[in-house]
Amino acid sequence: MRFAALRTLILCSSGLGLALPQNALAQAVTELTVQAGRLAQRQFDAPASVSAIDAQAIANAGPQVNLSEALASTPGVVALNRNNYAQDVQISIRGFGARAAFGLRGIRLITDGIPATIPDGQGQASTVALTSAERIEVLTGPLAQLYGNSAGGVIQTFTREAGAEPEALGQVTLGANGLRRYDAQISGRTGQVGIVADYSEFSTDGWRQHSAAQRKQFNGVLTSQLQDSTRLKLIANLFDMPLAQDPLGLTQADWRADPRQVVTRAIDNNTRKSVQHNQMGAVLEHRFDADLQAQLRAYTGTRENVQYQAGRATQPANKGAWVGLDRQFQGLGGQLQGRWRPADQGTVDWTAGFDLDRSGERRQGGDTLGGDKSGALTRDEDNSASNRDAYAQVNWHLDPRVAPLTLTAGLRHSSVQLANTDHMPATDGDGTGSVRYSATNPVLGLTWHAADTLNAYANWGRGFETPTLAEAAYTVDNGTLIGKFNTGLLASRSQHKEVGLKWTPTPATRLGAAVFHIGTDNEIVTLSSSSGKTAFKNAAATTRQGAELSWSQRWAEQWRSQLSAAWLQATYDAAFTSGSNTVAAGNRLPGIPSQQLFASLQWSQHGFASKHRLGPVGWSSSLDWIARSQLWASDMNDEASRAPGYSVLNLKVRHRTDLGRAQLDAWVGIDNLSDRRTVGSVIVNQASGQYFEPGLPRQWMLGLRLVAPL
Question: Which end of the chain has a smaller Cβ tally under 10 Å, C or N?
């Protein structure tokens, strides 16, 4: 698609925002405290690109099923919905994570302070409970490296806490293709104890054949003020997905002919996935005095996963394979945070902490016949991943009479071990082996507080990304892909540079911009793929460089708009071989659109300010425009792997009314209003060329939400 017109629109719209007089018709954007690296501070003053999405924005974004709904407006984030619940959504930040064929990869996910990414860098977005989320924060740029391995970006979600009055919430969402979601939530306080408990069910018949899914989830947070200076938070998250059918991807030709069709082998082998994921955690906070506090967090959990896959083209049509894992994971972390006030030198905020995490799993596999397990095991091994990390960060806010500057410095030392014990070494090569990766990564930054309404910042940092256990599972030996643990696979190393500004020229206008350059050595890429197995190797180097823009404007009490745009050029700096193919220098990294835009125009009958967390009563509406340029699904950048760009319009209309002390929220939405044919996401480097996962055509949804005091 052409983006010249979009650039013109951005410049003209920004100019209109800057030309507005500073009058009282619009209210300033509420200022938030966010995590800037490992220290919390005002979002406007944070020396980094950090975005925050509040509860109302999460609820307005869609049916609150997929994390990709809420992240569509975040600059630098590509959130693609596979519409395939067997593989989860595809999320990348500044190009990191785009190669993931399933789940999250290359970015860190944290829920209520508890890691949802295991030590090797794998994570699952489906376990985030959006129905009870108070906000989502997204940190990009060099400061994200203070979170350790595979921190190309950091996504943190926070469950809301109980308010002063107890209340109950019930929601029903219905939509096209049998979409159904039900949610019940209660919250309240008694004495010094507060609780939020949320239970939801989701199911869909799917637009494509063989794409039905069912989910059940409970998310609960209990907070207790043990003493005036001591607070305990207990978190429980239970996730059960008994069924997620996998329709598999399509070739470009099949997608163009009929995007709703399904590969025959998906039906013959009943490709599907089931997951049970349970996690519990505790966070203890203690304040010693006004300038010193400590936090200790611990968590544990289990994950059971069974996936049934299609077989090879050379096999009988109804013969496939299955793989299952039984995982246990746990971790412990702590940090000390303080403030120092040297005489006439401003203030120094500092923190130091550690993270100890471990994940161990029994992984097994075998053949299937007609979608059922058949025969003896062909894979039986124990995988483990662990990390031992320590970090520190200092923000020195100089006395503004001396210089209006904040100096930022941070350091993280990470030690990550991957290990495998193969109980069937004679089957497909001896997969027993272990490898340890270590890195000490510094971060430096400077923020210039040019005015109360203008901050400019510059950051530099180093990061690293280890292979996942899945990426280290196979090796090519004498041209044959075998199940031998790949201890020769190196961790990729990156250098991140970023400059940006944040400007609020009027109380109704907020602008943000960032320019970045990321150079990576030893990028992990596909070496060979065959029969559902993939071996990886290191490419020489890659470059990710681009720019991001965000703008929000309140035009009047009833009107506001939001815009975010991103440009990203992600390329291989040197040629390398993948299978029998040579990937040329200058080829684009797959799964990454070079341009992306989100624009939203919102109207509210009685304005947007409201003390009620659901928003003001009366009518409201929003029209969202999401546009992405073309992207490649293969390192080769060949025509067969080119996914065309697109733009879609999503419309939502809602009405809120007070029913005594209760509030009823009714809404209807239409996504892809113009019924455009789109590629929802791509399966990067899929061996059979079945790269394309179709986007949905025009879809309708409607919902009811009732909140009532207890």
Answer: C
Give yes or no for a contact between 515 and 500, defined as CB atoms under 8 angstroms apart: yes
Residues whose CB falls within 8 Å of the CB of residue 190, separated by 6 or more in sequence, listed in order: none
Q: What is the pTM of this model?
A: 0.92
Determine contact, residues 524/534, Cβ cutoff 8 Å: no
For strands 347-369 and 372-397, give the pairing: antiparallel
Enclosing H/E stretch for 268: helix 264-268
DSSP labels for 156-200? EEEE----SS-EEEEEEEEEGGGEEEEEEEEEEEETTEEEEEEEE
What average pLDDT does range 432-448 have in this prediction?
Answer: 95
Residue 26: pLDDT over 60: no
Pairing of strands 454-465, 475-477: unpaired
CB atoms within 10 A of CB 657: 12
In the three-class reduction of DSSP (H, G, I as helix; E, B as strand; rest coil), residue 255 is classed as helix
Mean pLDDT of the residues in the chain? 90
Given this model, what pLDDT does residue 9 score?
37
Coil/strand/helix, residue 216:
strand
Identify the burial level of 520 via C-beta atoms within 10 angstroms of its C-beta, where 0-12 means exposed, 13-18 middle and 19 or more buried: buried
Per-residue pLDDT, 31:
57
Strands (E) in 246-371, as ranges, are 272-289, 292-309, 319-340, 347-369
Mean pLDDT of 569-590: 92
d(CA 294, CA 288): 8
Judge whether 235 and 243 are in contact, CB under 8 Å.
no
Average pLDDT over residues 161-172: 93
Inter-residue contact 383 to 360 (CB < 8 Å): yes
- Token couple for 588: 């684009």
Helix (H) or strand (E) holding 128: none
Q: How far is CA 450 from CA 30, 404, 447, in A?
A: 21, 7, 9
Structure confidence by residue, pLDDT tens digits, 186-206: 999 999 999 999 999 999 999
Per-residue pLDDT tens digits for 398-427: 988 889 999 999 999 999 999 999 999 877
Question: What value does the mean pLDDT take over residues 567-590?
Answer: 92
Distance CA 204, CA 207 (A): 9
- Asked whether 393 and 445 are in contact (CB, 8 A), the reply is no
- For 530, the 3-state DSSP assignment is strand
